[in-house]
Amino acid sequence: MSLSIRTLETLKDCLAPWVKAGQISPEDSKEIMNCIARGQKGKEAKAALDMITRKRVAEITKLSIRTIDRLSEDGTLPKFKIGKRSVRYRLPDVMRLTGFEN
Fold it and tell me: Is the whole model's pTM more than 0.70, yes or no?
């Protein structure tokens, strides 16, 4: 499935207010657009959207990045390697860590 540039720009415009309000990070916005552009659906898209960066985890939890690294190293906060250097965290794991489970 291939989306036109116009469609992607419209999607970007739709996500802009959430990014501006700080409800989603610019990185999450890009990931959402990438999932849609790749044609991911259902569980695949939801799983990708639930993955957040280390920086975003630190913002949500109000902890330092080093503390996030320590929590990952001791197994308290599971991390997922994406490629050689990138790491992502599942939003439900982060919410559990903060005490805001569903």
Answer: no
